[in-house]
Amino acid sequence: MQSLIPITSSRSSKNIEILINPNQLAQFYGITSIKIMKTSIHTSSKEWCVELIESGKTRTIFDSEDQDISKDPSGVDIIKLLGHGLTIMNGQTLQVRSTNDYCSAICYLEDAEL
Fold this sequence. Notes:
With 114 residues, the protein is mainly beta. Helices cover 11% and strands 49% of the residues.
């Protein structure tokens, strides 16, 4: 059976949850290979998005127009909705932005190094 590493999101501001920051994962846990296998994102907001930040630029990769998760108790798995895996590299950050202050998430990373 495949083993996954759960990483909880961290609050960046009132309406932003950081999903994955490779620099912090390397510093705190020694994890350098960041392959996201599954996510569980929860928010009561009707408007939300998952964004990739790189070199100071922010790009939306998925948003509430693609999937309403405000009433879904199981949360959303963006990997399933995208239809492919997602690898995040050093210098990139993956975050969720919502229009209210409730948002939480867990990302499950491939356990390739242990």
